[in-house]
Amino acid sequence: MDRRLNPLAIAAILLALVIGVIVGGGLDLKRKLFGGDVTSIARASLESMRAQNRLVPFVARYVSVVTSKQSQLMFTSERTLVLPGDVRYELDLAKLGDRDVSWDEAARTLTVKLPEIEIAGPEVDLAAAREYGGGGVLGTLTDARTELDRANRAQAVADLRRQAQAATPMRLARDAARQAVERSFALPLRAAGIADARVVARFASDPKDDASYIDRSRSYNEVMASPSGQ
Length: 230
Description:
Order of helices and strands: HHEEEEEEHHHEHH
Number of strands: 7
Structural class: alpha+beta
Radius of gyration: 30 Å
Number of helices: 7
Low-confidence stretches: 1-5, 13-35, 211-230
C-alpha cells in the first residue's frame, strides 16, 4: 500500500484540523461568556437582575367614584368625585439573595424564591378627574365644599389602593412577575445550550404543597417555540 498521502487527503486533514480549532474555540468562548454550569449561569443572571433594582411586571388603571355629605345648620351639602389612577406592581430585585436561587440536578429545575409584590401608587390622573355637586346654601355659609373635596380625594386614593389589592389584579401581577423572572433566568441558560432545564419562580407565600407552578413551567424550547416567547 502506498503510504504517501495525496493532496486531496492532506487538504481534508487540514480542513478537519481547522474546523476542530474553530469549534473548540467556540466552545471555550461559550464557557467564558456563560459559564460552564447551571449554577454559574444562574449566579450571573441573579447579579444582572439585582442591578436592575426594581422590576415592574404589571401596571393597572382603576377608577374610583366617591361621594361625601355634610350636614350643618339644617342644610346638607354633597359632592361626588370620579378619580382615575394608575398603580404599578413592583418587585424589589435587590432583596433577591444567593439562597433564593437553588438548582435541583435530579429534577433539572432551577427554583427562584421571589420577594412579595409591592404596590406603588396610585398615581392619580387629576386632568381626568371629575367633580359633581354644589355646595348649596351650606357651601355659601361655610367652607363645606372645600372640606368635602378634601374628604373625597382622601377616600378616592384609599379606594384606588383597595382595588389594586384585590385578589384578581394581585394574581395577575404575581403571574406576570413569575413569568418575567423565569424568562430572565431561562434565556441565558438556553443560550448556553442547557435546554432541558426548567425555571420555576415562586413567592414565599405560595403554598409549599402546591405543585401547580412546577406543572405549568415549561422547558426553554417550549417557551421559545411559542409565538410570543411566553
